[in-house]
Every structure is written in structure tokens, then in C-alpha cells.
Write a structure and sequence with these properties.
The structure is a single chain. By secondary structure, the chain is α/β, with parallel strands linked by helices. The protein has one domain: Rossmann fold, CATH 3.40.50. The protein is about 30% helix and about 20% strand. It contains 8 helices and 9 strands. The chain has a 9-stranded mixed beta sheet with strand order 1-2-4-3-5-6-7-8-9, sandwiched between helices. It starts with a strand and ends with a strand.
Length: about 240
């Protein structure tokens, strides 16, 4: 996809890929649990036509350090430290699944840093019934220890995460995978209702929207990011 680089953030080496014009608006991509920056390979080149792409390997994934200590809040702090280290004062954020949760936590922590927010199949942080995770056979591109640690937080999220969705000022696009996704679509709709400038678009393709419908994904994201700032980019509502 791009050039591989790394940066130290509070003693943790974070790897990332970068592509696109140097002077273009920065766009940071955050992958799902168990994925890496390479998960964006099919959509990043198109997004890089008019954005400077930074696709991050979150801690415990890919080429980044696997420190053995994991949480969504640590990943949030990693992303904020990453922005500081690269001198990125304000960025657009795209997050898929777990990466989307990290993205909205970043927006909650410092809304000045986020211009626009895209959340791919990400529900509001509501408690859910825990289920056992089964480790796949063979070598993994991520540290399996992060799975139970992060799933505990997803199963029993901090109450303030739900409450503080209302504090997100960035125009927010929630892409929903529809009925074939394992993510409760009502949870995505709730997230949109709670974010003041939220919008929901359903793409009936399941949880992996950017993989199964890459052209539609890119089209929706680019249209959202390219809207002039004076337009109501976060107008509430849903369109199919």
C-alpha cells in the first residue's frame, strides 16, 4: 500500500504505512481486532488520491510492538501520541470495528484533533453477553493476549463512553453492514442518534464493508470527506 515506517510513543513502537500527497489533508486508518494496516490495501490507494494516508498497526498487531498490556484506552492514547509524534494537529479518522471504538474514544478525548469521523460497523458501547474466544491454529499477525483483554472492555464498556458520545463535535459517518453483519444494527443507529452530527449509511454486505464493497466504501467515505465545511455534513438521518 505504502511506505512502512515506525515511531516511538511512550516506549511502544508503532508501525504504520503512509501514502498520498504530502500536502494533502491527513487521514488516519484504524483496523479491526486481529488485523493490520495491510487490511486497508484495497481502499487506501483510492483514498490517497486526495488525502495523506496513515494506516496504523495498533499495539499488539502487525509490525507494532506487542507489549503484553492491552486496552481500548491504551490504544486511544497510542493514537493521540502518534498524532503528536508526527505533528498532525487535526486529522480525519476512519475506524473499523475495534478500530472504530478507538476512533470515537480519540474524538471524545480531544475533539479538536478530529476533523471528520468515519465508523465502519461500530455500535454504541452497550454491555453485551460475553462469549468465549477460540484461538485460531498457527502463527498469528497479532498478540492473542490482546483478545481477552479488549473483549472484556467491549463486553462491559465504561459507562462514560456511551454518555460522552454526545461530546463528539466532529461530523460523523457511521457505515452499517446491514442484516448479514454480526453487529447489532440497532446499536449503530443508537450511536448515530447520540452523536450530535451523526449520519448512518447502510451497505447490505456484512461486517467487512471495505473488503466486500470497496468501491462503495470509498465512494461513501470520499463524498463525506469532500463535503464543504459549511454544509450540514452531520445532519441526522439514514439513507440506504
Amino acid at each position: 500500500m505504502g511506505v512502512h515506517r515506525s515511531v516511538d510513543v511512550s516506549g511502544v513502537r508503532l508501525a504504520y504505512q503512509v501514502c498520498g500527497p504530502r500536502d494533502a489533508p491527513p487521514l488516519v486508518l484504524l483496523h479491526a481486532m486481529g488485523e493490520t494496516s495491510g487490511d486497508w490495501d484495497e481502499v487506501a490507494p483510492a483514498l490517497a488520491a486526495d488525502h495523506r494516508i496513515h494506516a496504523l498497526d495498533l499495539r499488539g498487531h502487525g509490525r507494532s510492538d506487542w507489549p503484553g498490556v492491552y486496552s481500548l484506552t491504551l490504544m486511544r492514547d497510542d493514537v493521540l501520541g502518534f498524532l503528536d509524534a508526527l505533528g498532525l494537529d487535526r486529522v480525519h479518522l476512519v475506524g473499523h470495528s475495534m478500530g472504530g471504538a478507538v476512533a470515537y474514544l480519540v474524538a471524545q478525548a480531544d475533539d479538536r484533533r478530529v476533523g471528520r469521523l468515519v465508523l465502519e460497523d461500530v455500535p454504541a458501547p452497550r454491555p453485551r453477553k460475553p462469549s468465549a474466544a477460540v484461538r485460531p491454529d498457527g502463527e498469528l499477525p497479532f498478540d492473542w493476549d490482546l483478545v481477552p483483554a479488549v473483549r472484556r472492555q467491549i463486553d462491559t464498556p465504561e459507562p462514560e463512553w456511551l454518555e460522552r458520545l454526545a461530546a463528539i463535535t466532529a461530523p460523523t459517518l457511521a457505515l452499517a453492514g446491514g442484516g448479514s453483519s454480526h453487529i447489532p444494527q440497532a446499536g449503530i443507529a443508537e450511536l448515530v442518534r447520540r452523536v450530535p452530527r451523526g449520519r448512518m449509511v447502510t451497505i447490505e454486505t456484512g461486517h467487512l464493508i471495505h473488503r466486500t464493497q470497496p468501491e462503495r466504501f470509498v465512494a461513501e467515505v470520499r463524498e463525506f470527506l469532500d463535503e464543504p465545511a459549511h454544509l450540514p455534513a452531520g445532519t441526522k438521518g439514514e439513507r440506504p
